[in-house]
From TrEMBL:
EC number: 3.5.2.6
Domain Beta-lactamase class A catalytic: 67-281
NCBIfam families in UniProt: bla_class_A
Lineage: superkingdom: Bacteria
Segment forming the signal sequence: 1-29
Keywords: Antibiotic resistance, Hydrolase, Signal
Listed InterPro entries: Beta-lactam/transpept-like, Beta-lactam_cat, Beta-lactam_class-A, Beta-lactam_class-A_AS
Broad enzyme group: hydrolase
Protein name per its UniProtKB record: Beta-lactamase
Organism listed in the record: Cryobacterium suzukii
A Pfam family of this chain: Beta-lactamase2
Any one GO BP annotation for this protein: response to antibiotic
Amino acid sequence: MARPTSLRKTSAIATATVFAFLLSGCAPATSPRAVPSPAASTQTAKSSANADAKFTNLEAAHDARLGVYAVDTGTGEEVVWRSDERFAFASTSKALSAAALLDSVGIAGLSADVDVAAEDIVSSSPQTQQHVGASMTLGELAAASVQHSDNTAANLVVEHLGGPAGFDSALSRIGDDTTEATRTEPSLNEWVPGDRRDTTTPRALTMDLRTYVLGDVLSGEERELLTTWLIDHSLGDTLVRAGTPQGWTVGDKSGAAAYGTRNDIAVIWPPSGSPIVIAVMSSRTEADAEYDDALVAAAASAAVALLDKRS
């Protein structure tokens, strides 16, 4: 399949058109290049003294704990920094629950209607609050969850998977025994240090995203639609996207939680060569600390440079 060639499209009309094409059996022009599953690649760590210095300096400069895992899917080279430490996953999980929904129902199943009741609505639900008393399709809910980080849409998607336990089981089926999903939005963002609920690691997030977007768990059409949702993500311009060179294509999903938690997971397509998959996670020591987009962007930039993708 061809690599995505268009940058993020913010038009709701464009998104609706792509979704309609997929439901009619047609594929959009933008589609990911399939690569071997993570288990099929030999990965060489780029945790050199230079890498350690970069991330140590970023943590000091931004007064935060930082976790990074990035892999060049062509060479298998990886960048690691606190890659196996736990962080709250926050709304990055919406990309994975939407992917798990695709795996569960397929393209055709996305046309099923779901009633949206007033009691379903939680905070930060810009799309679903417009449909109270009516219905949205599963596809519309998944798109709203990924593209606009709509919390109610995410909860309804997870409910269709069997609740947090069902979502957790879906991740286990693709080999993720690290992530622990236990709550729904917005309470899953009420993380405190040491709490394992609704946490994961940068490595696990990267592997999950790689498996769903570039692996063979989903069909070609399902991967294409998931990729479109990620590229159309409307809240990521100051995160991994800001840390990649102009003209590269990025599909991402951001998240934020207590203790200054700020995350972004992404697939990055350079103009030539294989995609990079990356997770950048961060937190701070105070419960009400502000999160720091600049830290995520700088960490992504450093990881891309370490993978020699700017040359």
